[in-house]
Amino acid sequence: MTTFKAxxxxxxxxxxxxxxxxxxxxxxxxxxxxxxxxxxxxGFLAGPAxxxxxxxxxxxxxxxxxxLKSPRRxxxxxxxxxxxxxxxxxxxxxxxxxDIIIDGGNTYFKDTARRAAALEAKGLRYLGVGVSGGExxxxxxxxxxxxxxxxxxxxxxxxxxxxxxxxxSGEPCCAYLGPLGAGHFVKMVHNGIEYVDMQLISExxxxxxxxxxxxxxxxxKVFQDWNRGDLSSYLIEITAEILGKRDEVTGEPIVDVIxxxxxxxxxxxxxxxxxxxxxxxxPTMAEAVFARYLSAVKDERCRxxxxxxxxxxxxxxxGGSCGDVKERMIADLRAALYAAKICAYAQGFELMxxxxxxxxxxxxLGSIALLWRGGCIIRAQFLERIAEACAxxxxxxxxxxxxxxxxxxxxxxxxWRRVVAMAAxxxxxxxxxxxxxxxxxxxxxxxxxxNLIQAQRDYFGAHTYERLDMPGWFHTEWxxxxxxxxxxxxx
Length: 491
Fold this sequence. Notes:
Layout: E1 8-11, H1 15-26, E2 31-34, H2 38-46, E3 55-57, H3 61-66, E4 73-76, H4 82-91, E5 100-103, H5 109-120, E6 125-132, H6 134-140, E7 143-148, H7 150-163, H8 182-210, H9 216-226, H10 234-243, H11 267-278, H12 283-296, H13 298-305, H14 322-359, H15 365-371, H16 383-392, H17 403-426, H18 431-444, H19 450-461, E8 465-466, E9 473-475, E10 488-489
Parallel strand pairs: 1-2, 1-4, 2-3, 4-5, 5-6
Antiparallel strand pairs: 6-7, 8-9, 9-10
Helix pairs in contact: 1-6, 5-8, 8-11, 8-12, 8-14, 9-10, 11-12, 12-18, 14-17, 14-18, 15-16
């Protein structure tokens, strides 16, 4: 009988799971591991974990559970959906009151809430933990977004703080966010923002390539320069890295031989769906998802390209030499990208604010911004500024109303408009850049054409409307003869 008692157990030894285990072991924790396929466990122990004395494997769930200290802490790194339920079903008969299950996958937050309620009714505790940073983050320190049982959190708080990424100040990028599905909701919004960030960068790259005729090497220098200023972020950094890599077969920039069809795992779609359910305006998040859908129909687009012409050639609107034009356009692109990025984050934070109200989570938006400073995919320099904005005004209605962000967006808008207009005139699709600009223009307008929409709704469906000059709700009998109609109070 082994005397090894692990501080935590982990089920699911994909690359993320393996790297989290190695991270935990490196930080001094004893870890028991299990995988549905025994060969995967054995391969991990003989390979990446070879010689690591504080990692032990198990062949069965029963054996795995016996290796854990009480209360048992078990982290699941398995595919979201039915596989999570299946593992929980296997574990339940072997667990006792107070034991803790931690779902570290990209799980839909409502599934987390359902599982938490069901397990807590049986005396078990449940945490839904968003983990961001990819394979490297899992190994070296991810951003960790926990939610679920507050009683359970006290038993894993120090462990997660130890393995999490650290901000420049030394603070761990990890903090308890709220009950039930709060952690997985915040991770979902993180991924929605990630979709937008990637789409905005790809559109900027596309304009450089298609409109300015820039090659990968020239673009790399631009992104490297941008990464030294306000746009400094992980995604800008890796974009520069990507543009500097060449394909060993063709000798061409590797980005030029990659098929333009983007995949997804569903979290961006969940973000857009939840925004619709909560009535939060996140159009750019939705556009980023739709852009991936359109990219997926590559063969259909190729056929359409032979039948659907674009615009006729149009001269550049910037005056001066070709070099001057390129330099000015690059400056415009930088300003447009930053302004659009701010609007994307504004949309994500608005969605979290709406969810916090709806589900009673009391999310601390400033703290969430700080969680994303290190380890995660959207880590960026300006997240500190978001935290500062939230601290300056705890009732801030929208991120772009904060003085710093307002000045940036207002100052960038002419460049932003030139970029979107030029792209439209040249037939270059920029759904995220243009959607974020439309969001800004819609938000800044005191009046919108929704008055006509409401009149139409009342005409065909008697849905009523409000008036500008008197309180209450009204209906008009639109089909009465003559040009003059009346507003009848209805409630």
